[in-house]
Amino acid sequence: GTTLGTSAAEKGRYFGAAVAAGRLGDSTYAGILDREFNAITPENEMKWDATEPNQGQFRWTGGDQIVAHAQAHGQKVRGHTLTWHAQQPGWAQNMSGSALRNAMVNHITQVATHYKGKVFAWDVVNEAFADGGSGGRRDSNLQRTGNDWIEVAFRTARAADPGAKLCYNDYNTDGINAKSTGIYNMVRDFKSRGVPIDCVGFQSHLGNSVSGDYQANLQRFADLGVDVQITELDIAGSNQANNYATVVRSCLAVSRCTGITVWGIRDSDSWRTGENPLLFTASGAKKAAYTSTLNALNAG
Ligand code: G3I
């Protein structure tokens, strides 16, 4: 293929980008998006603070705008994210106990129902595990409602949209370490008990090296019977082009790695200000990392 999306499609995969609704009117941005990418993740527009700014009052504007763009351009949409400790609306941030649990369940039900049939996958739960060596859960208001909050979130999402793939998504899980092993154990437990989980997202906000067991880590999750996806890829550092190729080759080597999403289009669109971690320059030119990514998608 001659674009990221067509090349990935030839390998049975998608190649997506995180998109901000507010940038869709920028013709350089939209031009690259629609030429290169066949999947979209809303960068912020489907998060709790965006979709339910006041309890029980839902706002679909930004998310709907992105879905409409995607439908008009043949791109699939990855929903992000139904629950997270961050970007909660103010009213939820200080809630606790059964009131918060009920609010979470209602939020998941309403959002997954609104976007039913329009998103192919949901990040049902984002970043619920702690960094460091514990392998345990991150403390948060959601975690304090009870350790079963994650499986309740997945069961609620399944009931609302039985057709969507339901994913767990996290960062610093890009190799075999205490955090990724904690998640692995949760997924294994969910599969053994019939808790509905279909996929695991590896954000892959990377520095100047890719873990030597990056592919092996994807594979061990796939071997549990879930799909895996690279969900928020961006890579800083001087070895950027090689590292992008390594990530692409790792995904292609794992048959259940179904797609790759980069977390933005141009360096100037990135949340990592000053790190230039993406595939296009601020003016929209293809970087060396773009070429190495495309070549890796087309190899073999
Ligand atoms: O929308 C408000 C705007 O009204 C206000 O004027 C402005 C002033 O600061 O802020 C705007 O909100 C910002 C929002 O992005 C939309 O631009 C928030 O401050 C800012 O914190 C928010 O950052 C997002 C971040 O998640 C929040 O944690 C980034 O764009 C987004 O790229 C980032 O994405 C996360 C993934 O969801 C999960 N994984 C990590 C990844 C990177 O942090």
UniProtKB/TrEMBL annotation:
<keyword id="KW-0732">Signal</keyword>
<keyword id="KW-0378">Hydrolase</keyword>
<comment type="similarity">
    <text>Belongs to the glycosyl hydrolase 10 (cellulase F) family.</text>
</comment>
<keyword id="KW-0624">Polysaccharide degradation</keyword>
<feature type="active site" description="Nucleophile">
    <location>
        <position position="232"/>
    </location>
</feature>
<keyword id="KW-0326">Glycosidase</keyword>
<protein>
    <recommendedName>
        <fullName>Beta-xylanase</fullName>
        <ecNumber>3.2.1.8</ecNumber>
    </recommendedName>
</protein>
<keyword id="KW-0858">Xylan degradation</keyword>
<keyword id="KW-0119">Carbohydrate metabolism</keyword>
<feature type="domain" description="GH10">
    <location>
        <begin position="1"/>
        <end position="296"/>
    </location>
</feature>
